[in-house]
Amino acid sequence: MDGVELQILWSNMIGIVSEQARALQRIAFSPIVREAGDLANGLFDARARMVAQAVTGTPGHINSLAAAAANLLKHVDASSLKPGDVLITNDPWMSAGHFFDITVLSPIFRAEKLIGYAGSTIHHTDIGGYGIGSGARDIHEEGLWIPVLKLYEAGVRNETLFSIITRNVRTPDALLGDLGAQVSSGMIASQRLNALCDRYGLNDIEALSDEIIARSENATRESIRTLPAGTFHGESTFDVPGGDRITLKTAVTIDNKAGEITVDFTGSSGRSPRGINVVPAYTQAYATFAIRSTLNPDLPNNAGSLAPIKLKLPDNCIVNATYPSPVNARHVVGMYVPFPILNALSQVVPDKVVAEGSGAVWTVQIQGQDEEGRAFTSSMFNYSGGMGARAGKPGISAVCYPTGVSAVPVEVLEAAYPIVFTCKELERGSGGAGTQPGGDGQRIGFRMRTTQPWLLNTVPSRLSEAPQGLDGGSRGRAGQFLVNGKPVVLSGKTDMKAGDEITMITPGGGGFGTLKAAKVA
Predict the structure, then answer these.
(1) Residue 521: pLDDT over 80
(2) Which whole-number Å values give the CA distances from 386 to 128, 356, 401, 462, in the listed order?
(3) Partner of 79 at 20 to 30 A CA spacing, among 188, 265, 275, 446?
(4) For residue 66, how far is the Cα from the chain centroid?
(5) 193 pLDDT exceeds 80?
(6) Residues 334, 278 contacting (CB under 8 angstroms)
(7) How many CA atoms lie within 13 A of 10 on its CB side?
(8) 39-45: strand order across its sheet
(9) 184 CB neighbour count, 10 Å cutoff
């Protein structure tokens, strides 16, 4: 396959999976998907290898989805699949790490031949159980567990499964609407992939996927071979809901002969009794993101480019959760996974890494009754702090690094729920000083339009342990969580009174480089 032909076919593949993602966002019911883009879409070959991903999505979803197709097919005989079948699961250990993230996998047929799969993972509004916080004591308190099942069989709805889902969630219309969006986006991918095969006279995509995956893997290995061999250590410490401190330690070993990088998390904090434990697939997702975005961000992200990056996870470790560990708020730790890796890589490629940022997004969920007595349950909505500075550029303010998920606009939230925002502005000066300063966090205030008590479920982090700078840069400023102007530490669902005002001040990012004193004239 010559380079020109391959580039044309590759552009078509990216167009297919990007259209799949755009359709999912347009059709979705929930603001967290429609507005924030908390989703992932991927196109897989018949061997369940991810060939292409959409340009829209979050690393925790995308790179988890890369493993999910093969995980699902361990429980299903691929030869028994038929046109119109749709597989589903939210098993945390098979995909994105907690019940809210539901993965849908649609086989793609050309005539009667299975030629690939269209996959998607999105965060759903509600899945029953505890909710988005970290207060559950084991995974069975966290919501509805959907094993690998057929959501549709030969195009016919699995009515039993639909009934079980409907009766076990607080917002069934939103969840079923979003599931419908996932199924529809898979149908679009199937139509477009068959059209591609028609246009270029292909019976399947196996030769094309072999070429794309092999080239991606070879290019990734070559980029690793340019690095010095050795083992480099990194560490990151942060506080989580309830005030506990978590430390992630990494030993990043570069094997420049094999073109491989191994990340060993030995020495990291042990399992937590709170729902902040991280499953291996989610740890792998953010670890590979940190390395891929540092070494060769322009290469396709697929099974080939991910293959040279290996993980070693010790037993009973917070980033190697085992059953029945609670994992609902796994992002509170998982989104910090890149930082010890980047700290280690700063010893190798200091001009390509970023200083520590605010880390995990601050998630909020509200429940109660509005002024007319109507019940409401919000989807999760997120707020970020500042991004860490880079060697040649300042950190970006109020940007969700490393997740990339957008904030739902306040106008959308105020239209959907009885919430009133009293402020939303940058917290100037909260980024750490340095040759390049860290990005600023933000200040968000809100109250509820209700005369009744209401429930607040939130998981802020870095309220005491501020982000580190790099190469002499200063720490960013830690965050604050205030109720009626007074600092509080929350670790689970909290009863709030009508009229209570919540103020969230998210952390600023760390600076990069020593800030030199100004010369005196």
Answers:
(1) no
(2) 32, 9, 8, 12
(3) 188
(4) 13
(5) yes
(6) yes
(7) 18
(8) 50-53, 39-45, 113-123, 101-110, 86-89, 149-153, 156-157
(9) 17
**Shortest CA distance to 221 belongs to which of 213, 233, 230, 210?**
213
Least confident of 135-149, 275-289, 486-500: 486-500
Percent residues over pLDDT 90 in the chain: 87
Its pTM stands at 0.95
Extract the tokens encoding 109.
């047929």
Supply the mean pLDDT for the chain: 94
Mean local confidence (pLDDT), 269-296: 95
Is the separation of the CB atoms in 319 and 265 below 8 Å?
yes
How many CB atoms are located within 10 Å of the residue 315 CB?
A: 8
Q: Which two tokens stand for residue 356?
A: 């520590």
CB-based contact 68:48 (threshold 8 Å): no
Residue entry with tokens 């005539």: 111
* Strand locations in 99-174 (E): 101-110, 113-123, 149-153, 156-157
What gap in Å lies between CA 399 and CA 36, rounded to an integer? 12
Q: What is the pLDDT of residue 393?
A: 97
pLDDT over 70 at 431, yes or no: yes
Q: Are strands 375-377 and 486-487 parallel, antiparallel or unpaired?
A: unpaired
The CA–CA distances, whole Å, from 469 to 237, 256, 477, 505 equal: 13, 28, 11, 19
Cis peptide before 402 (omega within 30 of 0): yes
Q: Name residue 246's beta-bridge partners.
A: 238
In this model, does residue 511 exceed pLDDT 60? Answer: yes
**Gap between the Cα atoms of 23 and 30, Å rounded:** 14
Average pLDDT for 277-302:
94
d(CA 364, CA 354): 27
- Residues of 207-220 as b/e, b for ≥16 C-beta within 10 angstroms? ebbbbbbebbbebb
- Cα separation of 153 and 191, whole Å? 18
User: Would you state the structure tokens that stand for residue 103, as one six-digit string?
Assistant: 């993965």
Please give the backbone phi and psi of residue 51, each rounded to the nearest 5 degrees, phi first: -95, -40
Amino acid at 255: D
Task: Give residue 111's pLDDT band: very low, low, confident or very high (50, 70, 90).
Answer: very high
Which residue type sits at 430?
A: S
